[in-house]
Design a protein that fits this description.
heterodimer; A: mainly alpha; 4 helices; 0% strand; B: mainly alpha; 10 helices; 60% helix
């Protein structure tokens, strides 16, 4: 049952319920889905390139964590829209 | 001072303390000492080491005594939230202990003892300005400290970065996560990314600075004790 007041759960890519047992004993492949790893890997490369090009402008407590939050939030949305436009 | 090690150690501590501590409390504790001092250290202090780590100055903020004060303040403000209180205490203490490794050291036993304790592995480089500090740190045993902290995290605490760990260990003990999700209308994947944000920041900071300092600027490594050789020692006491 969803918690009152919370946004709808966004579990399209996460079919399984979170599990403490898996959190403590799960394998790497169980805990880190390939599409999620790919999303973070590309975000990491993009951010490192930005950091090297700008010589530390983006390397701070605020922009660093916010970058990956916004990246993981919106890149899948943009990907889905792009796929919709391309059609079946 | 330590750089990315401060971001990595929180996840190792989270593995150790589990549901007894709040990750956000750990984060606030780990960021607290530098939040109170860093801007003035780089841009205002005549003697950065003395100001940042000594007395007279703000050296007492990087101490176990200040960790107790910050935890007591948190306990009062959070109306007795034990996970937040423990998190702030542990995060603040870990920061103070990690900062002992450079040549300026930290006043860890303040207010019982007002002198900094230093292991002297690498030179305190804030007197070089922010860029010079990065060059000094990532050319010295500071680089090894960050690499070791990352390695330990990836070997012993990698599960703390998983969605399962976040949803079953981190989130249930701290209502702040639900508040953040509602306040910013975040989907689960964004909230999870926010949780992982300081690991991401620590990792990219470590890699980016290493690339900038060595591949782009061409500075050499110096892994001798008390390195690097080109930074003059600062004596805060």
């Amino acid at each position: 049952m969803p918690d009152a007041g919370l946004p709808a759960r966004d579990d399209a890519r996460e079919p399984t319920e979170p599990s403490l047992e898996r959190a403590k004993h799960g394998s790497f492949r169980e805990l880190f889905p390939a599409d999620e790893l790919q999303l973070y890997a590309v975000g990491t490369v993009v951010f490192i390139v930005l950091a090297v090009l700008t010589h530390d402008v983006v390397l701070n407590w605020i922009i660093g964590p916010l970058f990956i939050t916004v990246w993981a939030w919106y890149v899948p949305v943009l990907q889905a829209r792009w796929r919709e436009r391309r059609g079946p | 001072m330590s750089w990315a090690a401060h971001e990595f150690e929180n996840f190792a501590l989270l593995k150790k303390f589990g549901v007894r501590t709040s990750y956000l409390g750990l984060l606030v504790g780990a960021l607290g000492p530098d939040f109170l001092t860093k801007a003035w250290t780089y841009y205002g202090a005549e003697n950065p080491a003395k100001f940042h780590r000594g007395w007279p100055g703000l050296g007492f903020t990087t101490s176990l005594g200040m960790a107790v004060i910050a935890a007591a303040f948190t306990y009062r403000v959070s109306k007795g939230h034990r996970a937040w209180t423990l998190g702030v205490f542990v995060g603040w203490s870990a920061h103070a202990i990690t900062d002992m490794f450079d040549t300026a050291g930290a006043m860890v036993l303040w207010p019982l003892w007002w002198e900094p304790f230093s292991i002297g592995m690498w030179k305190y480089g804030a007197g070089q300005g922010k860029f010079g500090d990065a060059v000094a740190y990532y050319s010295s045993l500071g680089f090894v400290m960050d690499a070791l902290a990352l390695l330990l995290l990836l070997v012993f605490a990698w599960r703390t970065l998983s969605r399962d760990w976040f949803e079953t260990v981190v989130r249930p003990v701290d209502g702040a996560w639900d508040w953040i999700q509602v306040k910013f209308a975040m989907p689960d994947r964004a909230l999870l990314a926010f949780y992982r944000g300081f690991f991401f920041y620590g990792f990219t900071r470590f890699v980016s600075w290493s690339v900038i300092v060595h591949a782009v600027e061409g500075w050499p490594f110096d892994f001798s004790w008390g390195s690097p050789f080109w930074v003059a020692p600062y004596q805060p006491w």
